[in-house]
Amino acid sequence: MIYIKSASEIEKMRKSCHIVGGLLDALEGLIRPGISTLELDKFAEDYILSRGGKPSFKGYQVDGLPPFSGSICTSINEQIVHGIPNANSILKEGDIIGVDVGVNLNGYNADAARTYRVGKISSEAEKLLQVTKESLYRGIAAAIPGNRIGDISYAIGSFVKSKGYFVADNLTGHGIGRNLHEEPMIPNMGKPGRGPRLSSGMTLAIEPMVNIGTNRVFENGWEFKVWDNSLSAHFEHTILITDGEPEILTVAE
């Protein structure tokens, strides 16, 4: 079932989304060569808790896997998503790192991701970041009432393909609200005019995950990696479908 949020529910989501947006901005000044992903996780957890929220990811459970141990996901280079923070993952010059953040405040979730440069990165990595971020905003632009989920998918996937890159297989965006993951699922490629129709009051987490070398994915427990070990980038926003243009919720207050 796809949930249409009331005005009061949307206001609650805005508050959780502001925490996510503020944290992603704050991480810009922290990410540098020599820092560990565990240090980033500790900073993120303190940031979230100090603002009254709870990390949505910490303790998250999926059948067959142990509860997720981090407050954020930290995915470096060929890691696509769900990288687990740890003391031995030390960022180095030229890396890229995708950070995915979820926050629950007053029973409502927010979810967003950003891929960061660690020092000076290669032109190849820079182009990947630009294309992935642009594909997110193209998907968001298609999220207007009367369109369908497939219009978002097509806007993302067709742009990524036109640049010679690949969207990661079987990894999708999703609805969000009281639950971190709700219907509908939002593939990052598809045909326009297909799938559920978009309506005002829907809240969606749109999140292209884009690989340089292949669409194929290798799954190792929680972590997803690119099959050929080429670079991957990830950008995500939680948005609100309105009567007009979509509203990006995961921004700093």
Explained architecture:
The protein is of the alpha+beta class. It has a single domain, classed as Creatine Amidinohydrolase, CATH 3.90.230.10. The chain has four helices and 15 strands. A five-stranded antiparallel sheet has the order 8-7-9-14-15. A hairpin with a 2-residue loop joins strand 11 and strand 12 (223-226). Helix 3 (123-141) runs antiparallel to helix 4 (149-162). The protein is globular, with a radius of gyration of 17 Å. It starts with 6 loop residues before the first helix and ends in a 5-residue tail after the last strand. The mean pLDDT is 98.
Give the topology, please:
Blueprint: H1 7-28, H2 37-50, E1 54-55, E2 72-76, E3 79-81, E4 96-105, E5 108-117, H3 123-141, H4 149-162, E6 166-167, E7 173-175, E8 182-186, E9 203-206, E10 209-211, E11 217-220, E12 223-226, E13 232-234, E14 237-240, E15 247-248
Antiparallel strand pairs: 1-4, 2-4, 3-12, 4-5, 6-10, 7-8, 7-9, 9-14, 10-13, 11-12, 14-15
